[in-house]
Structures are given as structure tokens and as C-alpha cells.
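Most newcomers find our protein records easier to grasp once they have seen one. A record pairs a protein's sequence with a compact description of its fold. An example says more than a description, so a record of this kind follows:
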Amino acid sequence: MRDSTIKIWDIKTKKCVVTFEGHSRPVNSISVFGDGRRFISGSSDNSLKLWDLDIKKCIMNFREHTLRINDISISPYGNLFVSAGDDKTIKVWNTNQCNSMATLKGHDEKVNSLDFSSDGRFIISGSSDKTVRLWSSDSFHLNIKYKKNLSKTRSYPVIKKK
């Protein structure tokens, strides 16, 4: 059974060193900022939470998805993060201002997975509608839609800068 807590473990002692509580339903995704001091969690309670590892508390709540959150990704520069949900949308968030900048719509079923390209220029999403989509992280426009005998997409390759 999945619970609604987030636990950090000491890999040497194999003991839980801190438990974060705040979600009311199971946590489906976690993404850690590059500085290692903050992380974001997404849950079946339709919320995102920004946590501070120094003070061990939730410092911000985000509630714009209408159904469960399946995945979260932080841009390589840490200035944006994105969340994907069962509501068929991708939300783009400004990390510094902690507000929603855009809602990317186009998938016909839930969005299962997403990530930024290694250079941060693109957002890649995979959905149960059997498509992979490539969005601009500047204009938030759809650049490419790929659908060719895909099973329900839960993962995908990340585009790397050459």
C-alpha cells in the first residue's frame, strides 16, 4: 500500500532520517533541484508541493491540476518546472515567482511522463493517447507530435544537444 509521505534514507545506516508529511494521497513523482536544497513532489491529491531540505518543511503549495499528478521535471537551469497529470495537461511553473506561466493542452488522454531536453529548450511529453510531443520551453508552442504504433507512452528518450 502506498502512503502519502516522502522519506529520506541514509544509505549507509539504511535508516529513515526524515519524513515529509503534507499530501493527503499517494506521492507519484519527486524532482530535486540541482542545488540539492529543494525538491518538488506531485501527488494523487492533485497538488504539487515545494519542500526545503534545510528546514525540512513544505514552503509552497500549488493546486492547478484537476486530477492526479503523474510526473514532474525541473529545467536544467532551475528557472522552470513542469508537471503532468491525468487532466491531460502540462503546467509550466516559474520557480522564482512560484506561479503558473502556461498550460500546455493537446494530449487526448492523461500525460504520463515529461522531461526537459538537456539544453532546456524543449519539453517532451508522453501520454496514454500514444503520442510523444515536443514543446518549446520559450513560446510553449507544440513543435512536433509523434505517433506511430506507440503503446501507451510511459517513457521516452530525452533529446540531447549535439
Summary: Residues 156-162 have pLDDT under 50 and may be disordered. The chain is about 0% helix and 50% strand. Residues 27-146 form a domain with the Methylamine Dehydrogenase; Chain H fold (CATH 2.130.10.10).
